[in-house]
Amino acid sequence: MKNMTVQTKCVQGGYRPGNGEPRQLPIVQSTTFKYETGEAMGQLFDLEAEGYFYSRLANPTCDSVAAKICALEGGSAAMLTSSGMAANFFAAFNICGCGDHIVASSAIYGGTYNLFAVTFKRMGIDVTFVSPKCTDEELEAAFRPETKMVFGETLANPSLVVLDIERFAKAAHAHGVPLVIDNTFPTPVNCRPIEWGADIVTHSTTKYMDGHGSAVGGAIVDSGKFDWTKYADKYPGLCTPDDSYHGVTYTERFGIEGAYITKATVQLMRDLGATPAPISAFILNLGLESLHVRVARHCENALAIAKHLEENDMITWVSYPSLPSSPDYALAQKYLPNGTCGVVSFGVKGGREAAAKFMNNLKLIAIETHVADARSCCLHPATTTHRQMTDEELIAGGVSPDLVRLSVGLEGAEDLIRDIDQALAAL
Ligand SMILES: *Cc1c(COP(=O)(O)O)cnc(C)c1O
Question: What is the pTM of this model?
Answer without folding.
Answer: 0.96
